[in-house]
Amino acid sequence: MLKKILYLFILIVLIGCKEKLTKVVTYHDNGKIKEVHHINKGSVKQGEVIFYYPSGRVSYSTVYTDGKLKDTIYYYHDNDKKELEIKKFFLNDHLIYYEDYHHKGVTKRTGTLNIDNQKVGVWKNYDKDGNHHFTKEYKIIDGIEYTNQMWVTLPTGDTLTEGVSIQYHFDKNKLQLTDSIYAFFQTEDSAFNEEDKEKTKVSVVLPKDYTQANFVPDFSNRAKDPDEKEGIHAIEIQSLKEHPNPKTVLQNPIDTTDYKKTVAFYWKPKRTGKDTIRGYFKEEFSYYDPNDEENKNMDRILTVLDKKIYFEFAVEVTKD
Known about the structure:
Blueprint: H1 2-17, E1 22-27, E2 33-39, E3 47-52, E4 58-65, E5 68-69, E6 73-76, E7 84-90, E8 95-101, E9 107-114, E10 119-126, E11 132-141, E12 144-153, E13 160-170, E14 174-176, E15 181-189, H2 194-197, E16 201-207, E17 234-238, E18 262-267, E19 273-288, E20 302-318
Parallel strand pairs: 14-20
Antiparallel strand pairs: 1-2, 2-3, 3-4, 4-5, 4-6, 6-7, 7-8, 8-9, 9-10, 10-11, 11-12, 12-13, 13-15, 15-18, 16-17, 16-19, 19-20
Protein name: MORN repeat variant
């Protein structure tokens, strides 16, 4: 009996302490409801919020906590079926999980947005039948959303068919100060067409002395072209085709025909603690205009096209 009285007392206290909210309703010009939400005595949004199309159908809904939007947001198509169009979920203060849909609720895209609504990380794209169609990796470079890599897949599976991508790996992420990391980079799919990619050169660009000046997360402190004086000092490691003895830097043998699209090297740390190796893989194609008959026997303008794929790798270095 005592337990029942105690339970009833706690329930009454909780109900009594529940904050009283005021309902707020706004309207479209046509007189239909535009938004319904609730505020506390400090005029701060609290609880469910629903927006409506001028048609009267639900546009999107979510939940506010102490005036902050941290819950899932559901966006709907303007039709009688109330089909879900977009779903957003706040992973933390900096990242938002995003998912949108074709009609009939079939997933269209999934990925992550930053607080500036820019795509970051890996995004998967699906066709109207729900088959995985292609994948893109996004990075923020110079503060701008940048398509870093892309993989196109078959409608029935994940077999790579074409795109712009590389494979790379570092052989360890924890090491001692006297040790070194083996790095391997290789083009999977060229940024250029079949004819041009045979004339491309590949390389990896790293800070010359990362202990003094590493690339920042959006690489905005890199030199934008070879002749630029601004930007941190960097080194460019050429493909194995340019190396005098490629086998000395290969952990495992590879086909010699792949030397021109492969970069391999050893990276040695210069300080202890947690760090990040940042750099970019560059595929470059240079040409003179073949139609420039007038100046073919004179100095002509060399056109250089390149595609950069940016990477970063976290490491932890300990003392011997």
